[in-house]
Amino acid sequence: MWQARFISAAPQEAEELWQAVENRLREALAALDAGTLPNDPHHSRAIRDCMVMHLIRSRGIEWVAKKSTAGAISNVRSELLTDPKQRKWLEIKYLERHGIHAAGREALELIADELLEEARPALDDPKLFWDSVRTHFQTTVAIFATLSLEISTPKPGAGEFLIGNSPTVPLKTGSLMGGPWGGVPLDEATTVIMPLGSQFMASLSKQQAQHELDAEAVAYLNRVQVLNAFKEVCFRPGSGLETIVAGLLPGRPAKPVG
């Protein structure tokens, strides 16, 4: 599960940021297997930072950036066409470009769209996206540092977890859709989840805890992963989870990927 040129403006700097998290994961995951992770602040922080990384290094943050750009362009267009001073400026630009006076709103809409289309590359600048990713990463690390790490495992016979390509999901209690798709910003989420392989699920709350989950809870968390993934989910061969994935696909909400 990967995307080419996700950070095209500063690939080396981005890789160094991700490695600052990934280099701590081997020991943290070993502590997870040994059952000592929840009581180890250093390793718990590594897992929380890993959750941040997979929240920020995702198609979700890219979609938010594109949506923000589209919203900014829409707002500027509206202001150009409604503010008297801006309309006068459009009339001047229309005359300069087309050699005739603008006749009515359609002419002003035409010149507004021309000017905004020319400005779009600056708004879609990969450097701006990288600056946003880097800022969101640091901000989210600070937010997650105030929360405690919960580790959940399936009860015997309750199944196992799968993982989607947007694995860190901020959720409201009982909801299936979270994060950008579900309209759940971090400050409104009641928890944030991320699978750590087939037998462990990390989540954030105000108090440290460990849980064993029954089959219904495991199935719920797997549905969350499938419904919030962009394109792919992964599961262990022989797990039987392909049946759950196939059953969810017909009703899965369509998500824009461009």
Give a description of the structure.
The strands form two sheets. A five-stranded mixed β-sheet has the order 3-4-5-1-6. A two-stranded antiparallel ribbon has the order 2-7. It has 258 residues and is α+β, with helices and mostly antiparallel strands. The chain contains ten helices and seven strands. The protein has helices at 11-22, 25-34, 41-56, 59-82, 84-98, 105-123, 126-145, 179-182, 215-228, 242-248; strands at 148-154, 163-164, 169-171, 191-195, 201-205, 209-213, 233-234. The model has no long low-confidence stretch (mean pLDDT 87).
Helix/strand class: alpha+beta
Count of helix runs: 10
Q: Widest sheet: strand order?
A: 3-4-5-1-6
Number of strand segments: 7
- From the N-terminal CA to the C-terminal CA, the straight-line distance is 17 Å
Helix and strand sequence: HHHHHHHEEEHEEEHEH
Cα-based radius of gyration, to the nearest Å = 23 Å
Q: Please tell me the overall pLDDT.
A: 87
Helix content: 40-55%
Percent of residues in beta strands?
5-15%
- Poorly predicted regions are none
Based on Cα principal axes, name the global outline. elongated
Largest sheet features: 5 strands, mixed
